[in-house]
Amino acid sequence: MENTVVGAFGHPSLVARRASLRRNKKSSRLPAGAAASYRLNSPSRRIKAVDTNSQDLNVHLEARAESAADTINPALKGSVWPSPSDETPFWKKEFPTWDVSVEVPADVEKDSDLMHIIHVTAEMAPIAKVGGLGDVVTGLARACLSRGHTVDVVLPFYECIEKRQITDLTLITTYNSFHDGDWIPTNAYRGEVSGIPVIFVEPSNQFFKGKYVYGGSYNELEAYIFFSRACLEWMQVTGVQPDIIHVHEWQTSALPLLYWDMYHQLSLKRPRITLTIHNMEHYGECRQEQLSKCGLDGAIYATTDKAVDDRTIGHNPERLSLLKGGIVYSNAVLFVSQVNVRSEVLEESLALAMLLLGSPGLDKVRRDLFWGRLPWTRSGQTCFWGRLTWASQATPILGSPDWRGIVWLNMMYRNPCSIDINLLHFCFRYHILPLIIVREKMLLFGSNMLYISFSVASYDSNFIFRYFGILNGIDTAIWNPATDIYLPVKFNAQKLEGKKFCKNYVQKGLGLPVESAGIVEGKDVVNGTQRKVPLVVCITRLVAQKGLHLITHAIKNVEELGGQMVVLGKAPDDRVEREFKDLADLYNEGPAIRILLMYSEELSHMLYAAADMVLVPSLYEPCGLAQMIGMRYGAVPTVRRTGGLADTVFDIDDHSNSHMANGFVFDGIDEGSLNGALDRAFSLYKNKPDEWTGLVRKAMERDNSWNNTAGNYIEVYNSVRVR
After folding, report:
1. Dihedral sign computed on CA atoms, order 454, 455, 460, 465
2. Tens digit of pLDDT for each residue in 192-208?
3. What residue segments make up the domains of the chain, in order of their start?
4. How many helices (H) and strands (E) does the chain have?
5. What is the pLDDT of residues 453-476, one digit of tens each?
């Protein structure tokens, strides 16, 4: 991925921008009429805003904004607007805690066949949230509770958790859990978070100590392996026997191994295991001796049919993959969108097809040559046995017609729909997907009822793996502009005045010009012309997967188009963080761009409410929540067609699907493709305000809640549970 990151920041247009700004520092600043300075790295994080030329305009704007605030919410009358010079940033003020009840929505009936579900997870929103995983766990748990099921979430008791967000916190038991030859005293607490029952596991050692959920001074991998066993130990000690144990990501993928090879042999007989893979980017690689610290024999799992990822052979032969082990040992494996599950099973499908039709098998397909698990796609050749390619930014092409395994590097531009094209290829026309994988055989059911198989493991043949693709939802109890505790004014699809006020509020707080707030209904008071400036937000982790080169290009393009943009996010890679810090130093002094290298749950809510558009230009995205949250808050999504983004956002110019249209979609990974989408979005916003308002309302009214999605999870649970 090194080349990807370098490519993102080394683009000639960005280099030229830097050079220009450094040569002409003064010209990059706001004109005298609206001079502003935003210093991201100042200790107090203050933003200074000054106006020396357009006092009449600003006075009018202030009066109109305050009048609008009074109309929308009389309680705001006389309130102080946020300012960049405030000692405390507006998103850090005191907010009330969530008061969320678990009620059955009017259109959802309680299930008749109820079960007990326990989620074992490293994250849960809002108390231990780093990414979308925390939102998914909370939203799914609440939706299943609303349908009448018994649901618990088991979470590490991180030192950084704010206890004020937990109600009825009680110590329920103290027990010992094994780690590295010792039995560690461990406390289990019960409490409620946003109406959801949570079990907090707190070991007496240094695990989960620190200021953040991830990145403590302890060995993180060993801590999560310990946590996986501690959860099962708690169930055994207390006699809890849920129907389903639902684990998430690599952090809890050791639990299925521990369950089947240890605790199922003891007293836990009823539970069945489901694993959701939210992001295949992280595998949880560990050494045999690290896994052995939980009491298992790590050497037993050092085979490709258990916990060795065969793609790493030749690179890290001594390492195990916790995620691979979780996949092998789980009763059901779930991906977070239909497109994503096709992407993940496609690799094995192609290899199997080669074997079916007489071509070399997996041993001839050197998958270990690749950097990561990205979707397989076909090349443009007419022959099925043509080159296989990666749909990625830097594209290695594997294979030749004589299968000598030659590898070329090529900056290849491909339409991401090639995943679907591949599914339509004759091999997939005549064979039904997804695969049904059995512990001993992998079966492909053909239309002619011919069953072809080959050995992939040496387990019991009656243990069936099933892959499911279920699109995530969002927790509409938390993400609700009509009740959001972080918003200065609430709003809904029928009453959008509050959204205009939220935009004005955020602009003032960040030191952005306020003439575009919408409070003045688009009129420039000075010359009477229309002044319509859209606000674009991008809230994301700054990693290569998210399309860093497209984000940096969007910053430049939005400014050129006359818009405003706010980027909110952190980069785990120090080099990427430094690059974005340089961008912040260059752009944050201007009138259009704010780059905030941090994450704030409070500010993210405010930005979604303020935004006219939300940008999600991911190279690949298993599901994605930003586009769904944006729609909920009236921010029209502009996304790249991939994974869950393709499942949820439909282009307004796609007349074959006009009834679903709710945003702007582009296919390529090049800047021109992004430009086209942004140009269309800006044009509609500025030139057709009525159509834009209709699009905003349509996006807000789309049901991306867990109410429907939870039913699909319940079906999966029922398919594997013990009756």
Report:
1. negative
2. 998 999 999 999 999 99
3. 2-96+494-687, 116-335+710-720, 338-469
4. 20, 26
5. 222 222 233 333 467 888 889 988
**DSSP SS3 for 384:** coil
Q: Would you state the pLDDT for residue 430? A: 32
Looking at residue 468, its pLDDT comes to 82
DSSP 3-state of 390? strand
* Triad 95, 97, 103: Cα angle to 5°: 140
How sure is the predictor about 723, in pLDDT bands with cuts at 50, 70 and 90? confident
How does pLDDT run across 403-457, given as a tens digit for each residue? 222 222 222 223 333 333 333 332 332 332 333 222 222 222 222 222 222 222 2
pLDDT, tens digit, 9 for 90 and up, residues 319-331:
899 999 998 899 9
94-112: burial string, b at 16+ Cβ within 10 Å, e else = eeeebebebeeeeebeeee
DSSP string, 95-159: -PPP-------TT-PPPSS--EEEEE-S-BTTTB-SSHHHHHHHHHHHHHHHTT-EEEEEEE--T
Asked if the domains at 2-96+494-687 and 116-335+710-720 fall in one CATH topology, the answer is: yes
On whether the CB atoms of residues 61 and 517 are closer than 8 A, the answer is yes
User: How many angstroms separate the CA atoms of 647 and 652, rounded?
Assistant: 14
Q: What are phi and psi of 167, to 5 degrees?
A: -105, 150
Element (H, E) at 593: strand 593-596
Residue carrying structure tokens 């109600």: 167
Q: What is the pTM of this model?
A: 0.71
What three-state secondary structure class fits 177?
A: strand
Q: Give the Å distances, CA to CA, from 217 to 157, 210, 297, 589.
A: 16, 7, 26, 36
Cross-strand pairs, 566: 537, 594
Query: Which pLDDT band, with edges at 50, 70 and 90, does 99 fall under?
Result: low
Neighbours of 214 (CB within 10 A): 14
Q: What are the C-alpha distances in Å from 548 to residues 133, 250, 567?
A: 21, 25, 12
Q: What is the pLDDT of residue 339?
A: 52
Cβ partners under 8 Å of residue 74, min gap 6: none
- Which residue in this structure is represented by tokens 């009074």? 70
115-to-103, 197, 703, 718 alpha-carbon distances in Å: 18, 15, 26, 9
State in words which class domain 116-335+710-720 has: alpha beta
Q: How far is CA 421 from CA 377, 511, 673, in A?
A: 8, 47, 20
Residue 591 has pLDDT above 80, yes or no: yes
Q: Does domain 2-96+494-687 have CATH number 3.40.50.2000?
A: yes
State the DSSP code for 163.
G
Helix (H) or strand (E) holding 629: helix 626-632
Q: Which residues contact 284 (CB under 8 A, 6 or more apart)?
A: 221, 224, 249, 250, 251, 253, 254, 321, 322, 323
pLDDT of residue 702: 93
How many other C-beta atoms can be found within 10 angstroms of the C-beta atom of residue 82?
22
- DSSP lists the bridge partners of residue 454 as 442
Contact in structure between 377 and 7 (CB atoms under 8 Å): no
383 and 410 in contact (C-beta within 8 Å)?
no
Strands 47-49 vs 116-120: parallel, antiparallel or unpaired: unpaired
Mind giving me the DSSP string for 144-161? HHHTT-EEEEEEE--TT-
Residue 168 has pLDDT above 80, yes or no: yes
State the pLDDT at residue 589.
85
Q: Where is 173: in which H helix or E strand? A: strand 167-179
Residue 522 has pLDDT above 50, yes or no: no
Q: What pLDDT sits at residue 85?
A: 83
pLDDT value for 377: 32
> 175-179 long-range contacts, Cβ below 8 Å, gap at least 24?
175/233, 175/234, 175/237, 176/233, 177/203, 177/226, 177/229, 177/230, 177/233, 177/234, 178/229, 178/233, 178/294, 178/295, 179/203, 179/205, 179/222, 179/226, 179/229, 179/293, 179/294
pLDDT at 359: 34
Whether 335 has a pLDDT exceeding 60, the answer reads yes
